[in-house]
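quick one before i forget lol
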Amino acid sequence: EKGIGDGSVSYGLESPDDTYMSSWIGTIIGPNNTAHENRIYSLKIVCDKDYPMKAPQVRFTSKVNMACLHQAHGNIEPKHFSIPSGWKPNYTHQDVLTKL
């Protein structure tokens, strides 16, 4: 995984053999002074054939209670989170993880 910025988010390919660069893992460390402070959350990011024109699918693999998530399976609900619903092709995995 590659640490980004202040180190609160990181991401990397799930498998080094993924020549299509479609399956990624991400990590978010909860921000200070929040209910999520110092907690570590793991995510799976999947980019289909239409990426970057279409937002990647993002799913928390760690249990977390957030309004923008489907609680049963951890998928981000686009109607409750600005990145998937307002996706732009120049957004990056870092943008998604940082906004979460």
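fyi Strands lie at 2-4, 9-13, 23-29, 40-46, 57-60.
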